[in-house]
Amino acid sequence: MANIKSAVKRIKTSSRNEQRNKALKARVKKAVKEAKTAISVKSEQAGQALKDALKRIDKSVTKGLLHKRTAARKKSRLMKLFNRTK
Prior knowledge:
Elements: H1 5-40, H2 46-62, H3 68-84
């Protein structure tokens, strides 16, 4: 355990941020997975699921959770899958 006050505070903040980032990343993964399954079974909600996934990916970039190129790659692959199954 840290002895310095600032180090103790830093440990608390980093653990809090880690939990928040894990939760946000899990939401992004879940949205992408739901979009993929909706597209693969040709559901009527596939468009809405795709829109939600793209929105979550974009939001994670603005929060600094994903790199912009990683997000672009994920979005591109989702759109490619969606357009292929139309």
